[in-house]
Amino acid sequence: NWTGKKRKTKKLKQKIKTDEAPVQEMEQAEIEVTENKSESGACFPPTFSVSEIKNKQRRHAMFLKLKEEKRKQKLELKKKKKKERKALGDQAPPKEVPKTIENQRIYDETTVNPEDEEVAFDEGTDEFSAYFNRLTNPKVLITTSDRPRGRTVRFCEQLATMIPHAHVYYRRGLALKRVIPQCISRGFTYLMVINEDRKVPNGLVLCHLPDGPTAHFKVSSVRLRKEMKRRGKDPTEHVPEVILNNFTTRLGHSIGRMFAALFPHDPQFVGRQVATFHNQRDFIFFRFHRYIFKNEKKVGIQELGPRFTLKLRSLQKGTFDSKFGEYEWVHKRHEMDSSRRKFHL
User: Fold this and answer.
1) What integer pLDDT is reported at residue 23 of this predicted model?
2) pLDDT tens-digit map of 96-148
3) Compositional bias (Basic residues) at which positions (predicted)?
4) Angle CA 222–225–226, to nearest 5
5) 140, 114, 108: which is closest to 258 by C-alpha?
């Protein structure tokens, strides 16, 4: 009986194999036909979509083929245009400028003209005028939220090595309203508070003393020195140069002045260190570099860290006051006139 059963199973297997063989041949033939059609360029009607193909593998293969064809067409068009431009020479039409969010930006009425008398008068009488008239030297106190974790602590320490005359103080349940008068009495010009969420720095409160203003930023993309590839040696105690990019509006101008007043007036060029605040689409990217002149034309740049990104949430008049503070500007997430091309800084 057992041998009989074995013979029956063998026969069944052979039968299944013979049935499967023509099906596989049919499938191979279909694939070859589709490939030949795709090569000739008349494989599908114009209304046909790749997503209509039910088989996942065939759909993916077809998608890759179409993508490659598009790439080849784009390259051919590019080569053709290049040849035409070369043939025309000086008479060639100007190159088309690609559309970006930056160059499609809606013009802001509050954009600052540096030569405007009103702007110059405001700068001469604002809260930062004492610093820009060289009457005060910056002195910064860096503190954290209650019970900071290791990553936030390291971030504060690295900020202190980067900003001259900065001191780190860990408050233990002490309210900011009590910290501010102590800072003023000890000659500090700035109070910087790093907040955290789930052991990660996520907020920064920058309070200019003694008269304000106070800015609240969202912090993201924090990279400490150890997490950076090909970073340079730790920064020296030299005063760095400061670069402020794209702070064009009235609000951006005051934020830029706020960052500038963090650093002493006269940078020490011997240290070759640069702190950059680059504003792009209302995101402020911070980078800290060391540069070296290789020759008259080439300059080498080495990032020292840390690096992070800021997004302005609010600007408050005077020192920090969460209950009765008067706000100059607040970020509204769901504005009626909000647009991807409208920026505030």
Assistant:
1) 42
2) 788 877 777 777 777 877 778 888 888 888 899 999 999 999 999 999 988 88
3) 1-15
4) 110
5) 140
Phi then psi dihedrals of residue 131, to 5 deg: -70, -45
3-state secondary structure of 174: coil
Q: Is 65 exposed, middle or buried (0-12, 13-18, 19+ CB in 10 A)?
A: middle
Nearest CA among 155, 166, 223 for reference residue 194:
155
